[in-house]
User: Fold this.
Amino acid sequence: MTNRERIYSRLLTVYPRWYRERRGEEINSTLLEVAAAGGRFSWLEVAAIAVHGLRVRLGIGYERFAGDVLSLAALPGLMMGAGLALTLGILGDWLPHTTILAAHPAPIALQFGPFWTIGPVLYVLWVAGATVAAVRPRYEHAVAWVCLVATLATRLFGGLARPPTSPLLLLGLLGVPAALAPRTTRPRRQLPISLLSGVTVMAFIPVSDANAPFSGGYFFHPLYWNWGGVAVTEFPYLTGAALFLAVGMLFLGHWRGAGAVGLLMGPWLLQSSLGLRPSVLQWYGPSALPIVSAAVCSAVAVLLVTCWVVDVRRSRIPLIEPS
Amino acid sequence: MDVTLATLVWAPAICAIQRSAHSGLLYTDHRYIKSDVDEVREPTFLVLTALAGGPLHGYAIIQEAEQLSKGRVRLRAGTLYATLDRLSADGLVEEAGEETVDGRFRRYYRLSKPGTALLAAESSRRMAVSKEAIRRLRVLGAWA
Assistant:
């Protein structure tokens, strides 16, 4: 067995057992025939198989509901991520260190060149990536994966110079739909909707920050920005508005759109729910808002999973001819 | 949660799930196919066109698609099988037998009747656009 055969053979384990039993041998043969015809070994080929396997495992390869919801949420998710990144960059890390030092009573060591954190590099990547995905849909998957990997790497290897975990978690989760979406074709109207999503995030966060307790009108720097306070006091209003939007869409029969709204609200709902952590509660005391947020989060998750399961089960049943 | 509120939230969701059982589907040739397949991307179009020449196995589809596109599109195996999964699920292609050649397993695919209808509709649409493009280029004197 050659190295390439060994790699392909191992690669097939990314598929679930039922799929391997059905198509494994066939895919392996196709890969080997490509190789035998003189095709060079390509890591892109390996990545294509790995992504396909992941989609099959998650049941989003071709099922209508999950695939369509992810496709609808893909670009708005990237745009929301870019909006968040732009806000963090402009109002936070982008400030030269001298400005922050002048505003801070105690001297603080520099952490990443002229900036406080490595954030600016990551934020520029997100904004550039979302722009590329908007203009060239075919690169949407690649862009999403690059942004996700960079965000994860920043969290793992950023050391002291990394931005706080909360914005990184939000950024990462907002990129997931684009990374997993099975289709990159989209209706023309999705672009303005996506841009609006990004702008909404940019408009919402500075307002939240100004209202957050203990922000004290300081300045918008992630190291000072009170994520706990924002999560407890402000995010539930955003998620509540999104819930109304989702219910309205369901009434109008746009069930995939409602699913996409629910999916994009997931990261924010999760942040709100994290406001129930003891470390946050000791500062802000018990509050009904994160509890409501956690309940909404659970309801949306149950609804999405129900739709997903119903759709997956339906898609595997032979279609019956009408009488 | 209050019963009225719960009904308000969940009833439309359940209605939407029930409605979705037939929404987005088009009944043709005794089967339902997705009605929103009017967005036929190039790899899908190439796979359908390749299969219009007769049943083919995976590697042959890759080769045929490369020839049809004059080497511009080279389908990767992951992309090919994702496309075949989707087309099979939509009832546009169907399996047409299996064989083992030189120890390698091959499964053949062919166009189904809805797939043939879709390819005909898409080809007609593309041809109409191309004809109009050529007519306008001739007016401009930019078409030999």
